[in-house]
Amino acid sequence: MPSVIDADGKVVRDLAVPAIFARDYGDKLHVVYRAVHREFANQRAGTASTLKRDEVAGGGRKPWRQKGTGRARQGSIRSPQWRHGGVAFGPRPRSYVEGLNKKERRLAFLAALADRFSQDAVTVLDPGGFAIVKTAEFAKLLFGSAKAAKSGPRTLIVCGRGEASAPQIERVSRNLPGVAVTDDRALGVSDVLRFERIVFTTTAYQSLSAQEGSAE
Questions:
Q1: Is 191 exposed, middle or buried (0-12, 13-18, 19+ CB in 10 A)?
Q2: Rounded CA gap, 170 and 133, in Å?
Q3: Percent helix, strand and coil across the chain, each rounded to 5?
């Protein structure tokens, strides 16, 4: 179960894991894979482009006569085997956008977070009275010491949308290696899987716990 720590890094209490994240999603790994693949595929610009032989300038006449030269017959310097010629089967601008229905996206998100809960990799931070202004102090709060932060687990801090302490948390964590900050509405499946530890603020955790409905 996740522990709640205060702005001094002390454990205040323990929270029960929400029932929706205490379930076994082991048979849903294929949905998680599809969700992650979709997230990365949708980031691709799809602007790679090459010129085909009919788009290359020049080559209006035959380079040399068909017979008698001892060289291989050629019809145009725009052919793919020529330097600066057209490209055969090269990339063309296209869309890499993949679709995934809303139910599957939500299921993948629940399965990824359930895995982090099962590994006790979720912590809740109560930012009430958060007054840390130095990165070293924040590293001590998260990892026990600034030195431990260099080899500590990759940590994602999730703040509530519009939370008052979010700008300060982002500022003091900016120079910590392996630490990133996001808000609860921008949290995606790849974010959950990329980080070994997730720290929710109390506001973000309440928003997460408020999720209702079946995952099936």
A1: middle
A2: 11
A3: 35, 10, 55
Among 210, 167, 160, CA closest to 187? 160
- Secondary structure (DSSP) of 62-123: -SS-SSSSSSPP-S-TTSTTSTT-PPTT------------HHHHHHHHHHHHHHHHHTT-EE
**pLDDT by residue (tens digit) across 60-109?**
899 999 999 999 999 999 999 999 999 999 999 999 999 999 999 999 99
Q: How far apart are CA 98 and CA 68, in angstroms?
A: 55
Give tens-digit pLDDT for 176-186: 988 999 998 88
Domain ranges of the chain: 3-29+101-209, 45-95
Task: Report the pLDDT averaged over residues 34-43.
Answer: 95
SS3 14: strand
Q: Which two tokens stand for residue 97?
A: 């956008």
Whole-angstrom distance, CA of residue 128 vs CA of residue 130: 5
pLDDT at 131: 81
- Superfamily of domain 3-29+101-209 in the CATH hierarchy: Ribosomal protein L4/L1 (3.40.1370.10)
Predicted structure pTM score: 0.79
Closest by alpha carbon to 205, among 28, 26, 14? Answer: 14
CA angle 38, 41, 45 (to 5 degrees): 145
